[in-house]
UniProtKB/TrEMBL annotation:
Lineage, uppermost ranks: Bacteria, Bacillati, Bacillota, Bacilli, Bacillales
Family note: Belongs to the glycosyl hydrolase 13 family. Sucrose phosphorylase subfamily.
Gene coding for it: gtfA
Keyword terms of this UniProt record: Glycosyltransferase, Transferase
Full protein name: Sucrose phosphorylase
Pfam families tied to this protein: Alpha-amylase
Length: 489
């Protein structure tokens, strides 16, 4: 299957009008022609937490969102991307609940990483843990088995509760591979075209390592899952927040990857009014990437940009975002912080708020994203140039809620009337339709206070010029007859 080099939408199943049926309607009506590249539907499955990222199963759709009929219907006109959390599954899943009841006699016991699979005596060793890239204070949780009354410690990479809601899977076990196959086959039968391998970097647990993107073991797993996806004609998108060199290895391996460097570089370019670092980056990057500016988490910083940025300059940019209402996700492990203590994992905010709610700066950011090689994704809040939802953060205590607001149909109608949104939709349609984007990309020479990007295909051409002093953006392009036209964004 060939992915379409056009713009995709990212949305929760209930964020645009409340359910999948309404999303289907919007894609064919109010949003028609915008997201011809596809739609990434954030987890629509039954889940016990983390807004869908603690799934009970992938064989059902949460009835609050709709049914598989809705997914199949969307898939008839729009390529669908869904997440598969290959690293973990919900504590409330039928598989783990059976393990909680029966312990090692459960038919699903081998799905999970009990600690004796890591340490032979099942006793965790702190010096090993100190080397790991941690997402919680300790990477395991303790559970009491109902029938025996004994305690079992199982690996839990993620989760804010103790014990965690997200239970790690043992991807080496035959039963886990059988389960993953059943999920993929179900996706295929329901018109899913792309699967994002969420948290895939954490699937290998090996003593003496960080337990994150452990080489060469990770490639053995990726080989297996890629052969399964190829068999079912499903594209894969591994999601790995790591040093940029890891992303490049995945690209060389033949995977689509995320450009997690671009959001920071674009923000830095516009805030500092200099294109120098961005031009340097664009001169040498793989083209087989999905590009984004915003998402349901935050703007990546560490470890994605380690070695690419100075931490004092990054701290200044972080501080500006904090002044504009952002909050932060931080690195927990001292071993994985910068030498000077810089520990920002992600900046959590809407991209519009990060740019001080400046319409021209925001449209310039989107134009740059759309002109950079790759498949562009637009997060639903970003589509509406949404502002930081500080009230929701205060209400829930969850920093990521700053950029996860839901819109009713009435809200959507109001948002679509906003001038900045209308300008963005015009830009999206241009990106979807001009033939030059299927051709050759180049970064044109320019002073630091400008950015000039160009695409050329036979007789077709389009170029973007951004004035970083004024944030004014101009596109020059050939029309179908070859005449040169200009378009101020």
């Amino acid at each position: 299957m060939l992915l379409k080099n056009q713009v995709q939408l990212i949305t929760y199943p209930d964020s645009l009008g409340g359910n999948l049926s309404t999303l289907n309607h919007l894609l064919q009506n109010e949003l028609a022609g915008l997201f011809t590249g596809g739609v990434h539907i954030l987890p629509p499955f039954p889940s016990s937490g983390d807004r869908g990222f603690a799934p009970l199963t992938y064989l059902e759709i949460d009835p609050a969102f709709g049914t598989w009929d809705d997914i199949r219907s969307i898939g008839e006109h729009t390529d669908i991307l869904v997440d598969l959390m290959v690293n973990h599954i919900s504590q409330q899943s039928p598989y783990f609940q059976d393990f909680l009841l029966k312990g090692r006699s459960s038919e699903y016991a081998d799905l999970f990483l009990t600690l004796d699979k890591v340490w032979t005596d099942g006793v965790p060793v702190q010096k090993d843990i100190d080397q790991m890239f941690l997402r919680r204070e300790v990477p395991y949780s303790t559970f009491k088995i109902h029938e025996s009354g004994e305690e079992e410690k199982v690996w839990t990479t993620f989760g804010k509760t103790d014990p965690s809601e997200q239970i790690d899977l043992d991807i080496r076990a035959a039963i886990t591979q059988q389960l993953l196959r059943s999920f993929f086959e179900n996706f295929k039968s329901n018109n899913v075209k792309i699967v994002r391998l969420d948290a895939v970097g954490y699937v290998i647990k090996k003593l003496g390592t960080s337990c994150f993107f452990v080489e060469p073991d990770i490639y053995v797993f990726l080989d297996w899952v890629k052969s399964l996806a190829d068999e079912l004609e499903i594209e894969l998108l591994p999601e790995v927040h790591a040093h940029y060199s890891v992303q490049y290895k995945l690209a060389d391996f033949g995977c689509w990857i995320y450009d997690f460097i671009l959001p920071y570089r674009v923000l830095e370019t516009l805030v500092n009014r200099s294109s120098r670092e961005l031009r340097h980056y664009l001169a040498d990057r793989p083209a087989n990437q999905f590009t984004m500016l915003d998402c349901h988490d935050g703007i990546p910083v560490k470890p994605d940009l380690d070695g690419l940025i100075r931490t004092d300059e990054a701290q200044r940019l972080v501080d500006i975002c904090l002044e504009r209402g952002a909050n932060l996700s931080l690195i927990l492990s001292d071993k994985h912080k910068s030498e000077d203590g810089f520990n920002v994992h992600q900046i959590r905010c809407t991209y519009y708020s990060a740019l001080n709610e400046d319409d021209d700066a925001y449209l310039a950011a989107r134009a740059i994203q759309f002109f950079v090689p790759g498949i562009p994704q637009v997060y639903y809040v970003g589509l509406f140039a949404g502002k930081n939802d500080l009230a929701r953060v205060a209400e829930t205590g969850e920093g990521r809620e700053i950029n996860r607001q839901n819109y009713t149909m009435e809200d959507i109608e109001q948002q679509l009337d906003k001038k900045v949104v209308q300008r963005l939709m015009k830009l999206i349609r241009f990106r979807n339709s001009h033939q030059a984007f299927q051709g050759e990309f180049s970064v044109l020479d320019s002073p630091d206070n400008q950015l000039c990007l160009n695409w050329k295909l036979e007789g077709q051409q389009c170029s973007l010029t951004v004035d970083l002093q004024t944030y004014q953006s101009m596109i020059h392009y050939t029309d179908p007859s070859g005449h040169l036209e200009a378009y101020r964004i």
